[in-house]
Amino acid sequence: MLDLLITHATLPDGCQNMSIAVQDGRITEVTEGLQAPAHETVDAGGLLVSPPFVDAHFHMDSTLSYGQPRVNESGTLLEGIALWGELKPTLTHEAIVERALRYCDMAVARGLLAVRSHVDTSHESLLPVQALLDVKQRVAPYLDLQLVAFPQDGVLRAPGGLDNLKRALDMGVDVVGGIPHFERTMAQGAESVKILCELAAGRGKRVDMHCDESDDPLSRHVETLAFETQRLGLHGRVTGSHLTSMHSMDNYYVSKLIPLMAEADLGVVANPLINITLQGRHDTYPKRRGMTRVPELMAAGLTVAFGHDCVLDPWYSGGSGDMLEAAHMGLHVGQMTSQAAMRQCFDAVTVNPARLLGLEGYGIAPGCHADFVLLHARNPVEAIRLRAARLGVWRRGQRVASSPAPVAQLRLPGRPSSINFISTGSS
Ligand code: FE2
């Protein structure tokens, strides 16, 4: 007797009428039309069953702090950084834990079951680090939280920056972060990349840096990141987050840079919701979008993910833990409207970030964890279009969240009495 059987599922690759058999928290079989006795059977009715959403770039120490101690009046990156500086002295362990747990509740409801969160290591107290390590342990039964030691004030620029980051790693933080474009000079930024990559290589850690998050076409720390990745043999273990300066770089230089990044098997995270709002702010018209070159990087074979980055914090007053919102924005900002590119936008919030995080047992295949989401959509493109309702969310074969299908009641002469927005006919 199976623990769980999902029937009549459509998978992201387009396979239809699929059954997913679950035993002891793992998928044991994925077969067309399978019927077998199970403690619980769920008929997906032809709707999409996807592996869970994964967010490769988030800040859980600041999330849901919007309005504390005041709102960001201008909505700019610089006022956001100043605001975070005002908030930091007032932070308490309990308040960070409470906000982070509340965010994880939202995430699970959205089918988002793995998050890589940067955690600010700038202050010697490492208060946010201890708080998020506690959260990581508490949410482990239902959400994989991976932490990045993030020196918000600069690892060389801030006194004690490198020591604090090392202590965060000693405490159990998973990944080495960085912020080279915020160091005092280009030379110090490059030096920080070298130091941090060597630190990661020495400790067997992955790397994920905020890198070149500016509109400055000469901010080229990603080149150093690719070089150090290759020099230290860290292929496939290093991610460059944001890389917004690539939007503004000279095309000839980029034609050399992207192959270097591909040689190093660098991971890339674009954060479309945040990039489109924070970059290009010194422009009049035309205004740059600021998002890195996602389609070109994907075409070169790099693993590219879309991150959420911020939800209701000093930098961003929107968001609700919905990775389909990030995919929707990425699709539009990157003009990724071909059939293949729209599907790639779905991959950018599922399989691609799972690869960057190095998640074990991710996917809908025999042997994988029984983690998946039933979406109120017939295929990945429709899921993005509708930011589809998460009808059911399963973790290790247990249902952890449900939402009703959205149906609007209509009162129109000669028209149906309700509408549910989903496409009709075959997918
Ligand atoms: Fe970030």
From TrEMBL:
Residues 40-400 form the Amidohydrolase domain. Pfam families: Amidohydro_3. PANTHER family: CYTOSINE DEAMINASE. NCBIfam families: PRK07572.1. This is Amidohydrolase family protein. It comes from Acidovorax facilis.
